[in-house]
Design goal:
The protein is an all-alpha fold. The protein contains six helices and no strands. It has one domain.
């Protein structure tokens, strides 16, 4: 049980550290790095490697943006199996809708509470 927490902590921390190094050592903007993480998660999922990775790392693998890419790819796979070619376009929307809606709603609520200011 304790090992699950340790694995989640070090894997999630390693992902965050690698992303921070990527941001510091390249001129990539944070938005592009976030898209890169989602795409990497989808590619890892496509090759069937994300499930074993998630079993080992738990929340350390499922919470970062890599996990969102995995969720999108799982939705696409299921939709393609059910609906054929059109599933390529449907699957990601169905599985990703909850995460996107939650991010929008909680981001909006946080902006009401904390009064964001533009950097000058």
């Amino acid at each position: 049980m304790m090992m699950d927490y340790i694995n989640a902590f070090w894997v999630g921390g390693l992902i965050c550290a690698l992303v921070q190094i990527l941001l510091e050592k390249t001129k990539l903007l944070p938005g592009r790095v976030m898209v890169l993480l989602v795409c990497v998660g989808a590619v890892i999922s496509f090759f069937g490697l994300y499930e074993p990775f998630m079993e080992y790392a738990g929340a350390g693998a499922s919470v970062p943006l890599l996990g969102y890419g995995n969720i999108l790819m799982k939705g696409v796979k299921e939709a393609v199996d059910q609906n054929g070619f059109i599933g390529l376009f449907q699957g990601g929307f169905k599985t990703g809708a909850v995460g996107c809606a939650a991010a929008l709603i909680f981001g909006y609520l946080a902006s009401l509470i904390f009064r964001p200011k533009m950097k000058g």
